[in-house]
Amino acid sequence: MGNRHGRYSATGHGKHHPHPPYKYDESVPKIPTQTSTSANVNMGLRLPYAHVDSTLRALAGQAEGFGRHAIGGLHGPLYHVKTLADDGPGSLRYGCREKEPIWIVFEVSGTIELSSYLNVSSYKTIDGRGQRIKLTGKGLRLKECEHVIICNLEFEGGRGHDIDGIQIKPNSKHIWIDRCSLTDFDDGLIDITRMSTDITISRCHFFNHDKTILIGADPSNTGDRCMRVTIHHCFFDGTRQRHPRVRFAKVHLYNNYTRNWGIYAVCASVESQIYSQCNIYEAGHKKLAFKYLTEKAEDREEGCTGCIKSEGDLFVSGTQAGLTPITNETCVFCPSEFYETWTVEPPTDALKHFLEHCTGWQCIPRIADQMPVVS
After folding, report:
1. Which of 119, 120, 160, 206 has a 20 to 30 Å separation from 150 between CA atoms?
2. Active-site choice (57, 141, 242, 247)
3. CATH code that applies to domain 38-366
4. Which cofactors (predicted)?
């Protein structure tokens, strides 16, 4: 059917909201000045959920968007990572395999070389604040788990077939990935597939990579129609494609800065619904921001693309949006059908400067916690 819109309409959302409510709160604290790193200098900009660094566990439940209910290991004890070893007592892997809720913090800085995927079980917070931890070799796998928070880590140099930085599949939900730096994996940086849903990716820095974020595995996985993902305040810095690439899912993109891509910025494929709001798209050699690919869902007679609605986006440096007109407004969901507020602001030079300097791993002190400790 070519690049036609409106072939797939979301069911159960008859009420359409043409203008979503913006949460634009001048009372939100500014970037703290007490940190010494240049990445956290005070630029006079408001910071989404800035108060989450006031106490250790304030992070839980503070995500915006579809992953807003993620609480991680809020109700569990602290687990202290005391070694950079791949496994064994005191290692990150040892803590992640525990079945009960755990809030994981680090007493060491450095590189953890993973010999295999590190499986993360439900109700875990991996909290890198206070240290600088880099994961290499392989990545994290979130398989059939829920309520996971991953904060302030670096992912670099993952090697091997199908090796992603963070792989979320199958049937995982209530996930929040915040302030992580991701680069140079042999496959994707973040893959979200096989009915994994209610996920937020925020304030992450993606660079030096090809296939950045995939949402929806292939046209045969029609169960992925349930997937919902929010990506906001992220910096896609010269990555080649997939910012993200989407099949089936509903995806809300806002206040991201994507520049100098190699093929396209955002790709909508079979039945996807993408709401792109107040993002900055700055082309390099390749000028087209939005791409549509036609694929046939396994349970349909004909192929179709996805739908993209662009609202308040800024296209600079000769960027061509490449949008296909939407013939049916209901073919793209409105975020306000699912959550009432989110922190969004106009796509200005100030926002761009903020995203260049305040995304990815940050030098953030770890706040003390009064909960009991497990060894």
Report:
1. 160
2. 242
3. 2.160.20.10
4. Ca(2+)
